[in-house]
Specification:
Number of strands: 9
GO molecular function: monoatomic cation channel activity
Low-confidence stretches: none
Protein name: TRPM SLOG domain-containing protein
Strand content: 15-25%
CATH class of the largest domain: Alpha Beta
CATH topology of the largest domain: Rossmann fold
Strand order of the largest sheet: 6-1-2-7-5-4-3-8-9
Largest sheet: 9 strands, mixed
Order of helices and strands: HEEHEHEHEEEHEHE
GO cellular component, one term: plasma membrane
Number of helices: 6
Organism: Emiliania huxleyi (strain CCMP1516)
Mean pLDDT: 81
CATH architecture of the largest domain: 3-Layer(aba) Sandwich
InterPro entries: TRPM, TRPM_SLOG
Length: 267
């Protein structure tokens, strides 16, 4: 009887081991399949607000620096978007998110504060291997951040999340796997602004609105994506606020609900 019981226990252990092995192989196969899909077909997973394939490619600025871009619906899944950024664009998961928000209009910081802001931002991003996330346009604090990263030859991702309808020169971005020369783009106005060449990647959020009505339509997707990394991937986030208006307050409110540390940079 004891021998029979021992043999039965041994067989049960073998079956459990086989079941666990099969489950592990299944999970590994699904993981490899997902990585392959996003590596080779990443943009095809998304569609624009009309259900057509997303516009995407490279933007080449006057500095000859190229940045990746994709135009996508404001309702896009943040889980899929995370896999796209990491799998197709090859951007490593951040150790920290440095989310910069503030005034879109041009403003001036005092020289000491500007130097402290730039050096502190660059040092924080470099030492932590983080992502810098901004509104992406060539105005206000977004320009300040992008120019600082460009001047310092920063090698971390600088991701601009901007409203497609208020992006000047967005007519140049139509198509898939495009390489766009971003020249002769209208200057900033109430109806739109160009993208800043200090950024490395752009997520352009299409809400269907254009001109001044499109400002702020990117905030929800930006907040959802940042919160996805905070809540689902355990990435800490610091929100850096420099000046700003109602849109900035909405971004800060979303961050406070997360909750995330918020640092105010005054004049």
């Amino acid at each position: 009887m004891r021998t029979s019981k021992k043999n039965e226990d041994s067989e049960n252990k073998k079956h459990r081991f086989v079941d666990i092995s099969r489950s592990a192989l299944f999970i590994q196969a699904r993981f490899r399949h997902a990585k392959t899909v996003f590596r080779d077909f990443g943009p095809s997973v998304f569609c624009n607000r009309m259900g057509d394939p997303c516009d995407h490619g490279d933007i080449v600025f006057l500095s000859d620096r190229a940045a990746k871009y994709i135009v996508l619906s404001e309702t896009s899944s943040t889980g899929l978007l995370s896999k796209f950024v990491e799998g197709f664009w090859g951007v490593s998961k951040p150790e920290v998110l440095i989310s910069v928000t503030g005034g879109a209009r041009d403003f001036e910081l005092s020289p000491p504060l500007a130097r402290a802001f730039k050096s502190g931002l660059v040092e924080a991003a470099t030492s932590s291997r983080g992502w810098i996330v901004t509104g992406g346009t060539d105005t206000g604090v977004m320009k300040l951040v992008g120019d600082a990263c460009l001047e310092s030859h920063l090698s971390v991702p600088v991701i601009g999340i901007a409203p497609y309808g208020a992006t000047n020169g967005n007519d140049k971005l139509a198509g898939q796997f495009r390489r766009v020369m971003y020249t002769n783009v209208p200057s900033p106005s109430k109806d739109g602004a160009p993208l800043n060449g200090g950024h490395t990647h752009f997520l352009l959020v299409d809400s269907g609105l254009a001109g001044r009505g499109a400002w702020g339509t990117e905030i929800k997707l930006r907040s959802r994506l940042e919160n996805f990394y905070v809540e689902r991937k355990g990435v800490p986030r610091v929100v850096l606020v420099v000046n700003g208006g109602p849109g900035t307050m909405e971004t800060v409110l979303e961050a406070a609900r997360a909750p995330s540390p918020i640092r105010l940079a005054g004049r």
